[in-house]
Design a protein that fits this description.
Bound molecules: 5'-O-[(S)-butoxy(hydroxy)phosphoryl]adenosine
CATH class of the domain at 530-662: Alpha Beta
Strand content: 15-25%
Helix content: 25-40%
Distance between the termini: 8 Å
CATH superfamily of the domain at 530-662: ANL, C-terminal domain
Number of strands: 33
Number of helices: 18
Shape: globular
């Protein structure tokens, strides 16, 4: 175990034993007035009134709903705005053609290279979306069909999503960093009819393959009848006759018109499916609705960012994640704002790339993830200081806890200490931001997500379902229904089938731990389940274990998250090898590569430890907390381990970990 990659892993491990930063005692206040307080809505009737009023004022409906909140409300199986009809693309585009925004920039695209940029006004974007919607129809896509989108961050990505929404097809975006196998699994799960992709990805000045992955996946996807390929780079890629079509040729075709009537959808028709990791071995297809989801994206954009006409809103997330769906696309366009989309990475061509973009476009709101800030902090303040960031009025953070140290850097260096930093807590399932300071919050505390938004009743409960006392940790539970909550998990070939939500003591169980301080401010303490968060990306340990377990050399694998200074958490894998395999560098490299191919680069283990056995209870359940402590070099106080079938395994694991760290 002397290879470079293992040395790197050890370096990470050494850093991982640093204590996490302490929460500061002082409060940072922001120079704003009007501290909005949010009293939870006291009854179902009030909740219903509250959201009905928002739905009237924020959305255009072609038919008004008959019941605001129907269904099994106690079990969170709610149908919002039943009887209501609308179209999402209409709300994001058409209505902005007649309210004075026709010639306003809807989407500003900045490519990897600074010279590559494009601007779409609402009129231009509308035309592209209508044309592509007609292309989809021409290729056989109808209302209710599933279309998978696997794209780099180029404007056609947004156009494809909106075109699906226009004709009532359900899109399922697969992040372009996922492997061919992951793409294949998702296409198969939702039985998609069509795939929209690109020839290649451009990143940090290099060209990376994308269509190659598609070809590997599509060989095993009988439901797919067509694949539309955007020419991003123009290099030769294989095109299969009768299946693959070039986007630009399809769009130029004489039979494609500029007109496409929006399909009138029911409020509870699915808008999209997005796969996310849970505690099982395979990702679940979270389904979001047309009316409730869109309303919640718009409502939160207004409430949290106060998004207005003269804003340039930059959400740095990839459209492959829910953050991109809600805060790059649907929220900002639904409000008629200007959204910036960036193809590149934070430190190419230099570590000032983000700040150069803020200056170039006079960005007013930047919404990014702590992992990005941590990576950029390493370059010091100079890359920030050389740019004029005076256009910024709000900083946003999402995806993982932001430590006070990182908070202060972002707030002090990027925000010059004078604009609010809004840390937003939410999940793929919640559709939009749930707990965050409002844009005009006067009192922020570094590391706290402040309070639930008006309309959201979040509480911290103990295992008996009682509210914990101040400062005590517990489960974060949402007590009331809200329109952004997902409508189901896609399964049995039905979008609306099997609505299995985590309901805990009458509330929606978020799976996160939290505590509340003396001011009722929320502090998120991390996941309570077996989901880890690597650079703001959610990964199920069970998925990585399944990937490792599918390699012939592996008898058994157990994966835990371990502290990592940039990524937040890193993937730490314990491996028990099959009898006839031995621990070699080549095998370790092969196992890492195997995970890349099965899931994608984000899931690659940072550290592998070979073991002779794993700590299990007599009933065969893995005692994961023991593995977490050992991975973190924390060898004391294992708590009650009397249930272990093989208690001596702990000492064996510690010894092998110490030997590994000493190498
Ligand atoms: C999980 C959801 C929210 C969209 C992007 C990720 C963690 C998210 C925060 C935050 C602490 C956070 C939670 C949550 N998380 N935001 N501000 N502070 N933790 O969506 O992939 O569904 O992940 O990310 O653990 O459950 P996701």
């Amino acid at each position: 175990m002397n290879s470079d990659s293992n040395k790197k892993a050890h370096a990470v491990l050494r850093q991982s034993s640093l204590p996490p930063p302490q929460q500061p005692k002082t409060h940072s206040s922001v120079n704003r007035t009007d501290n909005t307080t949010d009293t939870p809505l006291s009854s179902l009737e009030k909740i219903s009134e509250f959201w009905a009023e928002k739905a009237e004022s924020l959305l255009d409906w072609s038919e008004k709903w008959s019941t605001t909140m129907a269904g099994d409300v106690a079990n969170f199986d709610v149908r919002w705005f039943e009887g209501g009809r609308l179209n999402v693309a209409y709300n994001c585009l058409d209505r902005n053609l007649v309210n004075g925004r026709r010639n306003k920039a809807a989407l500003i695209w900045q490519g990897d290279k600074d010279e590559d940029s494009r601007v779409y006004t609402y009129q231009m974007l509308f035309r592209e979306v209508c044309r592509f919607a007609n292309v989809l129809k021409k290729r056989g896509i109808r209302r209710g069909d599933r279309v998978v989108i696997y794209m780099p961050m180029i404007p056609e990505f947004a156009i494809a999503m909106l075109a699906c929404a226009r004709i009532g097809a359900t899109h399922s975006v697969v992040f372009a960093g996922f492997s061919a196998k992951s793409l294949q699994d998702r296409i198969q799960d939702c039985e998609a009819k069509l795939l929209v992709t690109a020839d290649n990805i451009v990143r940090t000045g290099r060209v990376l393959p994308l269509k190659d992955n598609v070809d590997k996946a599509l060989g095993h996807c009988p439901s797919i009848s067509g694949c539309i390929v955007v020419r991003r780079v123009g290099m030769d890629v294989g095109m299969l006759d009768g299946r693959d079509y070039w986007y630009h040729l399809e769009m130029q075709s004489a039979d494609i018109s500029d007109d496409c009537e929006p399909e009138v959808m029911e409020a509870n028709d699915p808008l999209f499916i997005l796969y996310t990791s849970g505690s099982t071995g395979s990702p679940k297809g979270v389904v979001h609705s047309t009316g409730g989801y869109l309303l919640y994206a718009l409502y939160t954009c207004r409430k949290v960012f106060d998004l207005n006409d003269d804003d340039i809103h930059w959400c740095t997330a990839d459209l492959g994640w829910i953050t991109g769906h809600s805060y790059l696309l649907y929220g900002p366009l639904g409000l008629g704002a200007t959204s910036l989309m960036f193809e590149g990475t934070p430190s190419y061509p230099g570590p000032d790339r983000y700040w150069q973009i803020v200056e170039k476009y006079r960005v007013s709101i930047i919404y990014t993830a702590p992992t990005v800030i941590r990576a950029l902090m390493r370059y010091g303040t100079e890359p920030v200081d050389i740019h004029d960031l005076s256009s910024l009025r709000l900083l946003g953070s999402v995806g993982e806890p932001i430590s006070p140290e990182v908070w202060h850097w972002y707030h002090g260096v990027v925000g010059r200490g004078s604009i609010p930093l809004i840390d937003t807590w939410w999940q793929t399932e919640t559709g939009g931001i749930m707990i965050a300071p409002l844009h005009d919050e006067t009192r922020l505390k570094p590391g706290s997500v402040v309070k639930p938004l008006p309309g959201i009743d979040a509480v911290v409960l103990n295992e008996d379902g009682e509210e914990v006392s101040q400062g005590e940790r517990g489960r974060l539970v949402i007590r009331n229904p809200w329109p952004g909550l997902f409508i189901g998990i896609f399964m049995d070939r039905e979008c609306h089938a099997s609505h299995k939500l985590n309901v805990f003591k009458g509330g929606y169980d978020t799976g996160d731990g939290a505590c509340c301080d003396e001011d009722g401010y929320f502090w998120i303490t991390g996941r309570g389940d077996d989901v880890i968060n690597v650079s703001g990306h959610r990964l199920g340990t069970a998925e990585i274990e399944a990937a490792l377990g599918s390699h012939p050399a592996v008898a058994e694998a157990a994966v835990v998250g371990v502290f990592h200074p940039i990524k937040g958490q890193a993937v730490y894998a314990y491996i028990r090898l099959q009898e006839n395999f031995s621990e070699t560098e080549a095998l370790f490299a092969e196992l890492c590569n195997h995970v890349r191919l099965q899931i994608g680069p984000i899931a690659t283990p940072d550290m592998l430890q070979c073991v002779s056995g794993l700590p299990k209870t007599r009933s065969g359940k893995l005692m994961r907390r023991v593995l977490k402590k050992i991975a973190a070099d924390d060898f004391d106080n294992f708590g009650d381990t009397s249930a272990l079938a093989n208690p001596s395994i702990i000492d064996t694991l510690i010894a092998s970990k110490k030997a590994l760290s000493a190498e």
